[in-house]
């Protein structure tokens, strides 16, 4: 059992795989277990989950620095990105980073029969090429290796242009401080750094961006029980009008974890997570990057780490390590011993 930032985690030594799946605080485990027990005893009602759904919505908004009324709930990144992709005009030009996580890029590539063109460029070139495109879609932190897009340069590049920006904060929200009220579309899922169950995701839709067609329109997005039968189409105002009907138990866990994370000083959290990661970078002889994700080269790096009992991931021919709240210098020592061995 480990305690970090006032939270308790039942996490084993050497767990460095948050970028694949986060370990929830014990309070989140208890909240979900209680909801399952109530459901199993026949005591659950659909409206019982509304408060948790709204709490998760509000905490996600706080974590990315936007008003809560912009936030729509969903289940996965690709489903939320797909809303934006399907609404692009025929012939639109989209810019993505090379080797971008495919839940960001594939929904746009699926529109090529309509003449939508998707261009890949190195991550560092995104700001320079942004104004030549109708929309830029990029992860704030790259899944494969932890590189960060230059948000300041991207914002400057699109200011005063019609270019829209979609950011995926899945590998950033929960450890990286962000103020993204200027972004047209922000998506993020909860089961990694936000330490929630899989099945909870969010979309922040800027009020000045074109409102996308609600191709998945449903009773919940209409405002709840008043919209369960009959026409005409009803949509709740703001982001709520793009809601997917919530995955209840995922929203229970999301409410607990995101509420805890939103109450932390994320500047301190980043210093902790990236500081541990930078200790590994120093051993590898590469500069500090301020990212919580480290990519370790070597064909046998993932095997060495796994054999030493370290939970990590193999990505793009390298071993990927990810440091979160619950990691300590003891985990760094495990990594360094494994790599030296």
Automatic annotation (TrEMBL):
The keyword Protein biosynthesis does not apply. Pfam families: Aminotran_5. Transmembrane segments: none annotated. The keyword rRNA processing does not apply. One of its GO terms (molecular function) is lyase activity. Keywords: Lyase. Signal peptide: none annotated. PANTHER family: CYSTEINE DESULFURASE, PYRIDOXAL PHOSPHATE (PLP)-DEPENDENT ASPARTATE AMINOTRANSFERASE SUPERFAMILY. This is Selenocysteine lyase/cysteine desulfurase. It comes from Saccharopolyspora gloriosae.
């Amino acid at each position: 059992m480990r305690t970090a930032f006032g939270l308790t985690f039942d996490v084993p030594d050497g767990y460095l795989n948050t970028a694949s799946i986060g370990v929830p605080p014990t309070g989140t485990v208890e909240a979900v277990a209680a909801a399952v027990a109530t459901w199993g005893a026949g005591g659950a009602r659909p409206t019982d989950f509304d408060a948790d759904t709204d709490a998760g919505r509000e905490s996600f908004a706080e974590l990315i620095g936007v008003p809560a009324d912009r936030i729509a709930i969903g289940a996965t990144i690709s489903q939320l990105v797909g809303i934006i992709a399907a609404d692009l005009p025929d012939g639109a030009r989209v810019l993505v980073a090379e080797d971008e996580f495919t839940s960001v890029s594939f929904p746009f590539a699926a529109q090529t029969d309509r003449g939508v063109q998707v261009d890949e460029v190195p991550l560092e070139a995104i700001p320079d090429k942004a104004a030549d495109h109708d929309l830029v879609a990029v992860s704030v932190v790259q899944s494969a290796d932890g590189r960060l897009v230059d948000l300041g340069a991207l914002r400057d590049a699109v200011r005063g242009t019609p270019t829209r920006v979609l950011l995926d904060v899945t590998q950033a929200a929960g450890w990286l401080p962000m103020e993204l009220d200027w972004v047209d579309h922000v998506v993020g899922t909860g089961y990694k750094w936000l330490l929630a169950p899989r099945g909870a995701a969010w979309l922040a839709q800027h009020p000045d961006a074109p409102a996308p067609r609600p191709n998945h329109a449903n009773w919940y997005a209409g405002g709840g029980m008043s919209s369960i039968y009959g026409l005409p189409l009803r949509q709740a105002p703001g982001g709520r009008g793009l809601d997917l009907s919530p995955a209840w138990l995922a929203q229970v866990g999301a409410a607990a974890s995101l509420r805890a994370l939103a109450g932390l000083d994320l500047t301190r959290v980043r210093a902790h997570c990236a500081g541990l990661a930078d200790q590994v970078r120093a051993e590898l002889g590469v500069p500090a990057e301020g990212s919580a994700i480290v990519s370790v080269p070597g064909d046998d790096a993932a095997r060495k780490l796994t054999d030493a009992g370290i939970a990590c991931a193999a990505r793009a021919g390298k071993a990927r390590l990810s440091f979160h709240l619950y990691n300590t210098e003891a985990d760094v020592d495990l990594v360094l011993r494994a790599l030296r061995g």
